[in-house]
Amino acid sequence: MEPIRIAVVGVGKIARDQHLPAIDGNSAFSLAATVSPDDPGPCDLPHFARLEELLENGPAIDAVALCTPPQVRYELATIALKKGVHVFLEKPPGATLSEVVALRERAQKVGVTLFAAWHSRFAAGVAPARAWLSDRKVEKVSIVWREDVRVWHPGQAWIWEPGGLGVFDPGINALSIVTHILPRTVFLKTATLSLPENRAAPIAADLDMYDTGGASVHMDLDWRQTGPQSWDITVETDAGTLKLTNGGAVLTLPSGTEHNEDLEYPGLYSRFANLIRGGRSDVDIDPLRLVADAFLRGRRDAVEPFYD
Ligand code: NAP
Q: Which range marks the domain in which residue 125 is found?
């Protein structure tokens, strides 16, 4: 079978750290080109400043991976879908819910694959956590996602702009796990968003959610954490406590702890190849819906200005 010719659009941190190595390691794909306005891309490949230039003058491609900030994702995806090119959307899949729903409809209409990728769902502990919880009664959930923005997002201006999500940029990873492993739908009751006086997006957030069975789901999200970082989810059930730590990589059940190899991005690309070969799409908007609800329903508190 011929490999899927793919272009990576937006050569920034995640493209270099994860996408390029994952594509290189998957024989279902061949990297055909890169696109980025300022970054020169890897020097041994055709490179273009704009996606339109690649599609008009570049090598033929079957798919694109959009690794840009979310604010430009819809326009780029629309351009690709118009040409019948399969689309991998980095998380979050768009800057608004409406954009993502419109893309899903368009992909279906033109018969190409659209994949809203939630990389944290491919963390090693997540699939076994989902299986373990499937027949348990969930009583209480606690999410603690605290990291140092200066370490993880130095100088990323877009993340503080409207549509950049601020602290929900990492927080949506936790929500992508929780909405995947819990057997019931989760919805938001109240939220408090802490916005630095000089920024348009929150640096911290506190969310009170519930599942439809009445279990409380609390989320403590903070970008001002120095020292040890926390990416932890605790689920109390009628059969004991489940813990997912290290962003979903480590699973602790009442029977013991499992450490497995991190295969998030290789897992995403295997899934993307399977979707393309099977003529299917996978566009789950639940994590983005909860973030949208927090912006819709949350109280905003002004906090001290943030400088990089
Ligand atoms: P980043 O380092 O700022 O990289 C984004 C890149 O997008 C920039 O290098 C920029 O290219 C490019 N870009 C901007 N507008 C573009 C356009 N119109 N066409 C083509 N390229 C464009 O950001 P990042 O950290 O890689 O994050 C990108 C996305 O991945 C975000 O949605 C983020 O949530 C997600 N993500 C990030 C991480 C992480 O650890 N950083 C992990 C998982 C997911 P130029 O440099 O050429 O201007």
A: 121-261+292-303
> Using 50, 70 and 90 to split pLDDT, how confident is the model at 103?
very high
With respect to residue 42, please indicate whether it lies within any of the assigned structural domains.
Answer: yes
**Nearest CA residue ID for atom 32, ligand 1:** 69
Does 12 sit in the ligand 1 pocket, CB within 6 Å?
yes
pLDDT category of residue 260 using cuts at 50, 70 and 90: confident
> Are the C-beta atoms of 222 and 202 separated by less than 8 Å?
no
pTM for this structure? 0.97
In a domain, 219, yes or no: yes
Our answer on whether the CB atom of 156 is closer than 6 Å to any ligand 1 atom is yes
Examine residue 157 and state whether it is found in any structural domain, yes or no.
yes
CA of 137 to the centre of ligand 1 (A): 39
- CA dist 121 and 130 (Å) reads 10
- Residue 38: predicted pLDDT: 95
- 37 Cβ inside 6 Å of ligand 1: yes
Note every long-range contact of 45-50, with CB atoms under 8 Å and residues 24 or more positions apart, other chains counting: none
Regarding whether 16 and 143 lie in a shared domain, the answer is: no
Same domain, 159 and 256: yes
Residue with tokens 């998957």: 26
Centre of ligand 1 to C-alpha 56, Å, is 23
